[in-house]
Design brief:
23% strand, four-stranded antiparallel β-sheet, six-stranded mixed β-sheet, 337 residues, alpha+beta
């Protein structure tokens, strides 16, 4: 692309980021003099891009509302963000677009992308799994570096091993070699589930803690019946925490997961005893690992189902304390007026 044309497009991208841009600022960003900036603005006028001149001490140029949307200039990161937003909204059912609006919007963006970027984004969208847990507390959104996401999803798509630098929650850094199985977005965070050849175990890693991704030669076979989303949720539910909780709850896994999502608890439906009444609802075994117990009594009460606490003993006291507070509140009479 000739340099003047490239600079005109860069000028448009700068203006699309919003606000008023002074001539001096634009000249510095484009590495040209102020006279050349004004000439480039004239080229945008010729293209019917609604550029507005603002006079005064803090004046300059900005994009004015026009009768049509000006051409969009998206960086690699911006294109990835827009497409992921459209796809996530469609897959999770959270989009407000009617009909096929989100699909056509994604197709338009995809159509004008450079072939190099288009292939990498296809790998992301083809490898990505989303999990939805409306009852789970919303997590703080932590975005990974786009180069990390693109490199890992490309390796997932082509079954390529990778080498990464990973920083654990305690701050320790390590070099690891992985066979990446899938990328999952869950509760505001991104994860990759993989075989960790360094330890010989299947592991789940947060993408925002990964840097220095390098694709290695060779390939690997995916395990049979692989479900990346289920692996990530199971990994989160079995991660080491301060308390290990085991319960028995009368109800199905689906019923229990309405209050204890799969990323929080592992639920195993137990077989009914041979002498049990077939009309009697079965029980399930529930396992959780948590740092705090104080929130569990209220959740168990909200299940509105019989339950048995197997461990820890401290949870019994917290449940009894909640029950006593509720009983005392229920017995209180309104004050006399």
């Amino acid at each position: 692309m000739p340099r003047p044309v490239a600079r005109v497009l860069t000028l448009l991208e700068l203006l699309q980021s919003g606000g008023i841009r002074t001539v001096a600022e634009l000249a510095g960003r484009l590495d040209v003099d102020e006279r050349t900036v004004r000439r480039y603005v004239g080229h945008l006028y010729d293209l019917d891009v609604p550029v507005e001149s603002v006079r005064g001490r803090y004046g300059g140029y900005r994009l004015a509302p026009g009768y049509r949307m000006p051409p969009l200039m998206l960086s690699d990161d911006e294109a990835l963000a827009v497409l992921l937003g459209l796809v996530a909204g469609r897959r999770t059912g959270l989009t407000t677009a009617t009909g096929t609006a989100s699909e056509t919007a994604a197709a338009k963006i995809r159509r004008v992308l450079p072939e190099r970027l288009g292939r990498r984004l296809d790998a992301v969208l083809g490898s990505l799994a989303f999990t939805v847990a409306i009852t789970a507390p919303p997590g703080e959104a932590v975005a990974p570096e786009s180069t990390v996401l693109l490199s890992i999803t490309d390796a997932v798509s082509h079954h390529r091993p990778i080498s990464i630098r990973y920083t654990a929650a305690d701050g320790r850094s390590s070099e690891r070699t992985l066979h990446p199985y899938g990328v999952v977005a869950h509760s505001g965070r991104w994860y990759v589930t993989a075989a960790d050849l360094t330890t010989g175990e299947d592991r789940t890693f947060r993408l925002d803690r990964i840097e220095g991704v390098k694709t290695l030669p060779g390939s690997f076979e995916l395990p049979a019946g692989l479900d990346p989303a289920n692996r990530v949720l199971t990994g989160l539910a079995t991660a080491p925490y301060q308390h290990e909780v085991t319960l028995r709850v009368q109800g199905t896994a689906e019923q229990i997961h309405t209050r204890l999502p799969a990323g929080v608890a592992i639920v195993e439906e137990l077989p009914a005893p041979s002498s049990a009444d077939p009309e009697t609802e079965r029980w399930s075994r529930v396992e959780l690992r948590v740092d705090r117990l104080d929130w569990l009594p209220a959740v168990l009460a909200s299940l509105d189902r019989p339950f048995i606490i197997e461990r820890p003993h401290e949870l019994r006291g917290l449940v009894e304390s909640l029950a006593e507070r509720l009983t005392n509140s229920a017995r209180r009479s309104p004050p006399h007026e």
